[in-house]
Design brief:
Helix content: 25-40%
Length: about 140
């Protein structure tokens, strides 16, 4: 399979804090699948590091009150172009992220609390019928 995957899960330093979230199970996918790494925030023109953002209803706001919805939407659209270009079969995205989270994301209060919902890219992919997994669901992907 060809899998669109959050670059931070592969060890790329592209998170908001300039860090990474390497996931051994995600990295191991390269043994059986072709991985297409993306960072939607970077594709949307945001810098690394950058001010933390959370999704509040349909908007993506930074902790300092700046509306980053335009950048998140653009980045998700660019990631969709790569999904199509490489003819990906599914996506593995970073859990709880305002771009990539699936099912549960940070609640917009910047307090570490969660709510039901999807990140911008996860939502766009799922609306197209694409199967989206988080790094916490990789057993289901391999099943």
């Amino acid at each position: 399979m060809k899998i669109l995957i959050s670059a931070c899960l592969l060890g790329c330093s592209c998170r908001y804090d300039g860090g990474t979230k390497p996931c051994e199970k995600a990295i191991a996918l390269k043994e059986k699948h072709q991985l297409i790494p993306v960072c939607g925030e970077q594709l949307g023109g945001l810098t690394t590091p950058r001010t933390p953002c959370e999704r509040i209803k349909e908007r993506v706001m930074s902790i300092d009150g700046a509306d980053r919805t335009k950048e998140y939407t653009h980045g998700a659209e660019e990631a969709l172009k790569l999904f199509d270009l490489f003819q990906c079969d599914c996506a593995v995205l970073k859990a709880r992220s305002p771009m990539c989270g699936k099912g549960v994301i940070y609640d917009g209060s910047f307090s570490g609390k969660f709510r039901e919902g999807d990140g911008v890219l996860a939502e766009m992919l799922q609306k197209r019928g694409v199967k989206v997994y988080t790094e916490e669901e990789l057993d289901a992907l391999e099943a």
